[in-house]
Amino acid sequence: MTNTRSNTGHHCWRSDLSKSKLTLVLMAMALQGLTPVIHAQTSFPISVQAPSYSRTSTYMYILGGNSTGQVLGQFYKLDLAVPWKVAAPAWTRLADGPTQHLFPSTWSKDEKTLATFHVAKGVSVFLYSAATNTWAPSQLRLAHDNLQGVSAVTDPNTGLAYLAAGYMAIRDTMDVYNFQWDSMTAKALPPTIFQARSYYGNVWSRKRNSILYFGGYTALLQKLPDENIITEYVPSTSTWQTMVASGIAPVMRVDHCMSSNDDGTRVVIYGGRLADSTVSNDLFVLNTVTQSWSQGPSGPYRIYAACTIAGDLLVVWGGLDQTLNKVDKDMLVYNLTSNMWQSDYTPPASYVAARQAETAGSGSHVPGSTDTGAAVQPPQSHAGLIAGAAVGGVALICAMVLLVLLHRRQQKNRGSPVDTKGDDDRQALQRPREDTLRQQRHTTGESDEELQNLRAQIQTHQEEIDLHRRLLLLQQQQQQQLQQQQQVLQRQYSQPDYTSHPPMYSPGLPPNIFTHDPEKAQGLTVSPTGYPQVRLNSHATMDPCPNNGSPGPSTSGGPYVQRQASSVSLMSHVSRDMSSTSNVLLESINHSVSSTSQAPTRGNSVGTTYQGHNPRSDQPPKNPQFGARER
Known about the structure:
The chain is α+β, with helices and mostly antiparallel strands. Helix content is 32%, strand content 22%.
């Protein structure tokens, strides 16, 4: 009874331990599932220069960039539908993308796919899926995908992306990318209107239904004159034109920030590198309705920064300052209505309404367009899903803890089972078991003996097979050696002696292989092609066996005949010696096998020489496998 109680307690203790381990594992998995949510809310991107940035309805995305010489592949989105401070923006980390800087990216019309260009050697385009948060290389290959200073913008009407002075030619074409077919076509650029072919800024203007360009270098990376112009391209008509605006316009520049508001009525130019290579901090606003410029208050010095406009707020992040040093991770926010820089961000009412509609499960369109993509539909929000997952994880942990506590309480209240059988009953039950065990042991002993006999027989057969295999290998090696010696003797005594003649030259090889002066070679001439030619009546035309196989020009035999006869006799002696050697080896092996095979189970082993074989005969022994097949 004591043993039964102790075993039962030990089993219950092991069961409780395994269940406790399972509970800990489930709790760790639940916490691990909640970790990305917490990390997404508290992580911030590393401040970089020249990142690729793009826009959807309520988010701004930054990708890659250069951080003090280290190119990154970080990918974040900034929530523009919630308020935040400039020192703590609402960033969310996404799956890392390609490591690159100074490269363009733009969203598709449905805001489900992000396309990036000039990403890596051998890969022209990378595609990001917003639904799965994954990156994949495109099958598209571009001839000049190593060009820098190209920008991209999506037409929200057609869903096509336009890359001026792009990768199909060397800054001479307007490349058009099709998201649906993952393909690209090219149109020729005008020779005179659009001269800024590199490091320019571009935005989509919903008000004018066109793409606006400002700043940049020429195709040869030369500076442009300061002109008060904006270049405009209308995709619907494929026409280019120059917009001349009034007011104080910004001077020409590169590496600047250019962005348009939601309805396309205002365009902001901020910072950049001027013609004298100095960094600018001025800010200009273009009214696309009145076609006039106005200047706002200056801000911090910036080049290679990412920017966008949400409502009437300009948002700037990253870049370099006037000393070309990396700036901090804080945001810059400029209010276009009050013309002031401020320390916090307040989302537009339309953005908040769109986010509420997303949370409720109904889509809502945010009016306006963006600088690098189309504003057609707001992206799907996962805030409700994340909150539900967090609450569900906590509830699961609590339920598991409660189940463990209830199980332990039931084990304490439950009594240990009592063994009510007597000693006689146990002996009666054990007797049939003992008889069964004896029978099993007897049967097992007989089976072991038979198994050992079978193993001995199998081992004997395997040894016989190994002996036959060794005999065959020895015979094959002897035959191969004999054939090789015969071939060497035939080549040695069948070739004529050319020692009394000049060296022969192959007409199929260049003459400089044999001599530095091919014209001095006897019996050869150099053709115009550079290969030697055989002259008539020269040593090269001598036939070593002109008289029906007799060597040399003489018909009396000579040393050639004697050498050939001696070769035949020598070959016969070698063949006889090799045959006798193989026979002696076979006899010694067979004698050793017969002397070692004394067991009754090995009576059929090879113990004598093969029948019909004469050791002194020149014929090879018979096939040693003949007896093995009979057995």
